[in-house]
Amino acid sequence: MEAFQRQQFDLLLMMATERFVERIVERCAGPEAALARLRADPQGEGIWLDRFVTAIFQDFLLDNPAGACFVLQALSGRSLPSPPAGKIEAMLQTMARQAFAELLLLRSEEALEQMIGYG
């Protein structure tokens, strides 16, 4: 991945993390509750990680094969379970969203810990 592409991905991840953390802190009435709910169930009420990732992919025009490849290239060192069989386009999107969601979850936990003062 070219340096400028890495910079674009890092900016995307930073913006997504900031937006996600802000959203869940507001919905959960504070960072402590947000962190607890995020860790308990990332797809649960008020968190909805997968929905957020889908929206981010749409907002940043990544909901296409080229966008999925951009994300997958940036996260090529990570591991994922095998996606279900299907059209290549759908498989790429599934893998990209899943990989991005996993990293977003980790970054969000770190950001919430810093807000609380754990880190």
> What general outline do the C-alpha atoms trace?
globular
- What is the tally of helical segments? 5
Fraction of residues in H or I helices: over 70%
Q: What is the H-and-E element order? A: HHHHH
Oligomeric organization of the protein chains: single chain
Provide the β-strand percentage band.
Answer: under 5%
Secondary-structure-based class equals mainly alpha
Main sheet: strands, sense, barrel = none
**Strand elements, count:** 0
Mean pLDDT: 96
**Low-pLDDT ranges:** none
Radius of gyration (CA) equals 15 Å
State the separation between the terminal residues, measured CA to CA: 31 Å
Characteristics:
single chain, mainly alpha, 119 residues
Blueprint of the fold:
Elements: H1 3-28, H2 31-40, H3 49-59, H4 65-74, H5 88-116
Helix pairs in contact: 1-2, 1-5, 2-5, 3-5, 4-5
Q: Can I get a quick summary?
A:
With 119 residues, this protein is mostly helical. The protein has helices at residues 3-28, 31-40, 49-59, 65-74, 88-116.
Fold and architecture overview:
The chain has 119 residues and is mostly helical. The chain is built from five helices and no strands. It has helices at residues 3-28, 31-40, 49-59, 65-74, 88-116. Helix 1 crosses helix 5 and helix 4 packs across helix 5 (88-116). The protein is globular and about 40 Å long.
